[in-house]
């Protein structure tokens, strides 16, 4: 019988490194320390040098409050008895699978504690990917071999001339969009991510580093993994001086997205992928420098983005990074906003804007450009230029400017009839109502809903939030009346601006840059998988109107 006590247990366990295996112990779903440890020194741990993820079930224990003060017995005898045998490894594999399933449902399973023995590679994202990639490559190969000729749908002329709506034509692993339900990141909805991903403080918004881990591996990380990733991003965050000088070469009046994209292009000179390609790296290895570039890019963007903000709006007074903060909080800090609620907003913002499957303009652009083996910087800069369009990422800017001009025209105490008139005036002038409608979604965007919930919790009396709420009642029936709008409901951009404005970030022209920083997480993750899976050059067929006419005449 063995007794465990939090850190002591971990360090003792970690010292059991026979055969080079580093071990640590923690408990899910809570990280409360265990009770007292006697000694682990007598424990022999004859495990081979495997990248093991070992879990032992069945540590049902008394309630956590009583638990922390009491010794907690852990039977290791059975482990000793079976270690080294195949039975053990098979049990490990089965338990590991079971644990992953339960981890997804874990919040309600408070009475179950897991003892997880893991190798150092469990804390290393790169090592995890290295393990996963051969398996995923096999999956893709098998899929192609077994189902390569299965039809996924019919292409109609409408689809060809209507922006390829509804045409399935891309492989995108990190997220999937359902028209009614909204986005799922590796199978998890936004509310599920809010519950399961580690937060800065209990019950808080998810840390974007956790989402990055999830997008890359498909697994929900624990806090230790997320903290490790935060530190890794910090260690990669140094931006070379020439990047700032490249931005400085532009007039300060240039649109923030132009300055930001130029900064990204200037970052490209450090591309590891480009260097490796020039040296003749074989294509089976491409994912490695893509990983380096994507991680460096994600890590460096907050510094570049905040430089643009401070340059344009704060007389160039730069705020240095604070290494004690997580990714999103540090970004907010460098922008000049330290209110703890704003830090929470930034964590939520960066999480929910990160990925929206592969067909949207920015994601698709990065995927397309990357398919030519352009490195992640080149691919992401291209994506940013797509994001800068008003029908895509620039809509967040448009929404706040539109609401501000509404307030200027009618005042803050605006009646429902005045609102309706304003919406109709916008439509009659040939413009779209920004923040409403979507190419795929057919219901209210869950990214809108979670921002609304944030507002209800933190700023219920904000006059601009109240206006956004009123618009939610007024706009959908009007767009429905138009008869042609497929989705009259609000999207993510209808809400983000008023939240940022509430905390003082009110420069609407800057908003799309925030979106861009977040989008690097989804795009960077998928680019790594694009190269890992060896996805080929993207090259769909195009046809002329004449070709279509001739083809359709023959077909009918
Ligand atoms: C997002 C968007 C570009 C999707 O376009 P789409 O897939 O072509 O949308 P639909 O199929 O519903 O468009 C059908 C018609 O309704 C119009 N429509 C769609 N959303 C509209 C809106 N919010 N306001 C006014 N008209 C709209 C389209 O412009 C199109 O008109 P047309 O036939 O005269 O060209 C579109 O809804 C839009 O422009 N929204 C406002 C901008 C915005 O919020 N963008 C951010 C998206 S996350």
Strands across the major sheet, in which order? 5-6-7
CATH class of the largest domain: Mainly Alpha
Rg is 26 Å
| Number of beta-strand segments | 7
Which residues sit in consecutive blocks of at least 5 with pLDDT less than 50? 1-94, 96-118
Distance between the termini: 79 Å
Percentage beta strand: 5-15%
From the 3D structure, determine the CATH topology of the largest domain: Citrate Synthase, domain 1
Name the average pLDDT: 84
Under CATH, the homologous superfamily of the largest domain reads Citrate Synthase, domain 1
The helix content, as a percent range, equals: 40-55%
GO molecular function: acyltransferase activity, acyl groups converted into alkyl on transfer
GO biological process, one term: carbohydrate metabolic process
Family: Belongs to the citrate synthase family.
Active site: 392, 438, 493
């Amino acid at each position: 019988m063995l007794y465990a006590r939090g850190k002591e247990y971990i360090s003792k366990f970690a010292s059991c490194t026979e055969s080079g295996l580093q071990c640590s112990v923690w408990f899910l779903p809570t990280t409360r320390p265990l009770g007292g440890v006697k000694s682990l020194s007598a424990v022999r741990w004859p495990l081979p040098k495997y990248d093991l993820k070992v879990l032992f079930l069945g540590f049902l224990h008394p309630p956590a409050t009583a638990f922390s003060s009491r010794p907690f017995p852990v039977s290791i005898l059975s482990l000793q008895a079976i270690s080294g045998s195949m039975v053990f490894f098979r049990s490990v594999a089965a338990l590991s699978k079971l644990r992953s399933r339960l981890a997804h449902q874990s919040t309600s399973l408070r009475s179950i504690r897991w003892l997880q023995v893991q190798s150092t590679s469990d804390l290393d994202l790169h090592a995890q990917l290295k393990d996963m990639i051969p398996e995923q490559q096999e999956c893709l190969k098998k899929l192609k071999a077994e189902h390569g000729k299965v039809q996924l749908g019919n292409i109609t002329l409408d689809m060809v001339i209507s922006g390829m709506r509804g045409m399935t034509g891309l492989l995108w692993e990190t997220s999937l969009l359902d028209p009614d339900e909204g986005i799922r990141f590796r199978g998890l909805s936004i509310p599920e991510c809010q519950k399961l991903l580690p937060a800065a403080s209990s019950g808080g918004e998810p840390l974007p580093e956790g989402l990055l881990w999830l997008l890359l591996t498909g697994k929900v990380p624990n806090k230790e993994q997320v903290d490790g990733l935060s530190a890794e991003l910090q260690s990669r965050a140094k931006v070379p001086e020439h990047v700032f000088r490249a931005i400085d070469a532009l007039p300060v009046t240039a649109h923030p997205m132009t300055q930001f994209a130029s900064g990204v292009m200037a970052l490209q000179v450090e591309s590891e992928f480009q260097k490796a390609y020039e040296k003749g790296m074989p294509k089976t290895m491409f994912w490695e420098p893509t990983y380096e570039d994507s991680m460096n890019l994600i890590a460096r963007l907050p510094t570049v983005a905040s430089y643009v903000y401070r340059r344009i709006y704060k007389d160039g007074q730069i705020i240095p990074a604070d290494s004690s903060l997580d990714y999103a909080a540090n970004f907010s800090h460098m922008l000049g906003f330290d209110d703890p609620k704003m830090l929470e907003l930034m964590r939520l913002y960066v999480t929910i804007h990160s990925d929206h499957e592969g067909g949207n303009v920015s994601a698709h652009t990065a995927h397309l450009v990357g398919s030519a083996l352009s490195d992640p910087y080149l691919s992401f800069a291209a994506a940013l230029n797509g994001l800068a369009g008003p029908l895509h990422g620039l809509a967040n800017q448009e929404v706040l400017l539109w609401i501000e001009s509404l307030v200027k025209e009618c005042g803050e105490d605006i009646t429902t009839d005045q609102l309706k008139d304003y919406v109709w005036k916008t439509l009659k002038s040939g413009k779209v109502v920004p923040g409403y409608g979507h190419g795929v979604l057919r219901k209210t965007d869950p990214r809108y809903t979670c921002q609304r919930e944030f507002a209800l919790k933190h700023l219920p009396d904000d006059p601009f939030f109240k206006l956004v709420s009123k618009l939610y009642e007024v706009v959908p029936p009007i767009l429905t009346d138009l008869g042609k709008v497929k989705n009259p409901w609000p999207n993510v951009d209808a809400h983000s601006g008023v939240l940022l404005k509430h905390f003082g970030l009110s420069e609407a022209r800057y908003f799309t840059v925030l979106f861009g920083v977040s989008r690097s997480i989804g795009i960077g993750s998928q680019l790594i998988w694009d190269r890992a899976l060896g996805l080929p050059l993207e090259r769909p067929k195009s046809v002329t109107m004449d070709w279509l006419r001739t083809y359709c005449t023959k077909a009918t």
